[in-house]
Amino acid sequence: MDIGGLIHAFFDNAGPGGVVVLLVVGGACAIYYFLTRWIVTAGKDNKPTPEEGTARVDA
Amino acid sequence: MEPKNPFTKAILAPVRKISTGDTLLWGTLLVLLLAGGAAWTWQYIEGLGITGMNRPVYWGVYITNFVFFIGLAHSGTFISAILRIAGQSWRAPLTRAAEAITLFSLPFGAGSIIIDMGHPERIFNLLFYGRYQSPILWDVTAVSLYMLSSIVFFYLSLIPDIALCRDRLTGAPRWQHRMYEVLALGWNHSPEQYRRLEKALDGMAVFMTMLVVTVHTVVSWLFGMTVQPGWHTALIGPFFLLGAILSGTAAVVIVLALLRKAYRLEKVLHLGLFNSLRKLLITFVLGWLYMMIAEHLTIGYSSMTEEMVVLTDKFSGAYAAVFWSMAALVFGVPLLVFLFKGKNNIGWMVFACVLINIGMWMERYIVIIPTEASPRLLTVMGQGSYLPALPEILITVACFAGMALLYAVFTRFFPIVPIWETAQELPGHAHAAETSPTGD
What we know:
The structure holds two protein chains of two kinds.
Chain A: H1 3-12, H2 16-40, H3 50-58
Chain B: H1 8-12, H2 20-46, H3 61-72, H4 74-85, H5 95-116, H6 123-129, H7 135-168, H8 174-184, H9 191-224, H10 236-262, H11 271-302, H12 305-315, H13 320-340, H14 346-373, H15 378-381, H16 390-413, H17 419-424
Helix pairs in contact in B: 2-16, 3-5, 3-10, 3-14, 4-5, 4-9, 4-10, 5-7, 5-16, 7-8, 7-9, 9-10, 10-11, 10-14, 11-13, 12-13, 13-14
């Protein structure tokens, strides 16, 4: 495989540059989406159920 | 567990009311923005020929605005990311105000490039036919990623305070309350959420710091990678970066002083913050002077014919008045003010920071125009000249008005001082075991 030729083609041809921009921005969107989800879903499983909540108030 | 912050009520107070003054301010800014929109439409129909740009001055105030606004955008990243990494906890009350400058100046920076294209649809040429040899494509990649990352960085640290608005501002109009509900993403102030948020922000701070250096270096390479006199120097990257951090930090001082006065936030945005920023600004002004001397001395010492034409134009020729005014505005006057008048005096600080930003805009102008007017192939291209025309002036004013409008509207709907982050700096800490907010 001619890696040098590929690199040359990447820099010398019209088109691939735009693909790189889309890949970088698209990839960042995906990472940020999962990062945000990871943060906001934390601790949601630990929330007391309505029954537990009532029991604590009654106690 | 809501953050325990004694200033919660004061910070949320501006969110609760829109005054007549606000309506007037927003209306005025909107009119200026619309005037710029009309000028852009005029330019779209008639073409770039109605601007002051000509052969060989192909870049005018639009590119000046581009560099300036991208520079302003560095304020948020500097205050939030770099000072976060450095463990400077005093920065907490400033972070959101600084990040908002980033958020609202970036669209006008990136947008200036699109305005400069004449026809905005030409942006698709970059995507379909772009090749990575071109610094323009490096720039598009870096600025797009920076804009996206800044939005996420800003939004993540805003989520706990949006949740606070959702829980506290129950009397807000229905649509506004619904907006808080949606944007809070179900945030319930659990310690684990805060732990993960801190971890994510710490990680992003490192990434944002690398990005901020990359972005303005790549912006400078739009110029530096050409072989034009005055631009083709390895120093241009750090020179642009330092100028950007200087103007961004000066913009933070101006905005903080306005917010402090308009929203009566004297206790939160206290004098100590301004004194800390003053020390930083003294360092940046001196750093900028060092870069300025290093750049011009290196170029001037070579005595190369093309370089000397541009240098002479700046020092004693057609652009001398702009050049020396710029030097006085960015370095001379502000340094004297910071040293002898700025300590414990916000008014003087604001005065110096306004001068710095006017000077930095002129600096961007003086980097671009003299080189364009006297390019390397001077005998072929001919001596050029440039004066901005009416559409360029209207669009420039509209960019500043648009940024101010977005900022002003934002401060009336979201807390401009981060409640949870400032709470963390208080004794007893925000997310301690207590669940009852005693902030009021």
